């Protein structure tokens, strides 16, 4: 049907003819199902997916490279997740941070309430970080809902100017509506690895969220009767709880 028109085009405008033949050849080389419309649809689907996390926002850093005024809005699209259940938010939070080299958690509201109440009257404590040989001590100091850690030797040599080596950020923004408090962290990788940070974060809950009066009693002693406080009592508590053995590098937990 089009043979005559094709031949006429070839005679009258050979350049146009060759150009159309090249385009036709390119189309034939495309894989089956390929189309620019398909690419457009895929692009729109990507853009339509909910973006829960606001990467790169709130990135003003303070001394030591830690984020200054690190709000939940600078990490998470709070308005979007408000429509989700606590279980869904927990899954979103855990899935996002599981791919990152950091510490994170979702803390039940009642547990955080207990921790927060105790942090008001006992804002600091001494933590013991298991090492291959012995322990290294770190001081944890609450500043609002942030918990800053630095090694004891830093405190002894630099006092109040001792730099933070780990900061745990607690976000109670969704506590009333969803019954959860979100937590994540930043650390100075020159001094600590994620394993160390996780150990310290676990100890916060061990000492501040415990139902055992003897355990929290160490926190009270450290804050209000410092002359009576014994460093080795922290290690003894860790060993008794099993946390010290479990988190010591090079050892395998005996928990199943």
UniProtKB/TrEMBL annotation:
Its main location: mitochondrion. GO terms for biological process: mitochondrial proton-transporting ATP synthase complex assembly. Residues 1-31 are annotated as: Disordered. One of its GO terms (cellular component) is mitochondrion. It is found in: Mitochondrion. It holds the Pfam family ATP11. Residues 1-29 have a biased composition (Basic and acidic residues). InterPro entries: ATP11. Keywords: Mitochondrion, Transit peptide. It comes from the Eukaryota. Belongs to the ATP11 family. This is ATPF1 factor. It comes from Cnemophilus loriae. The lineage of its organism: Eukaryota, Metazoa, Chordata, Craniata, Vertebrata.
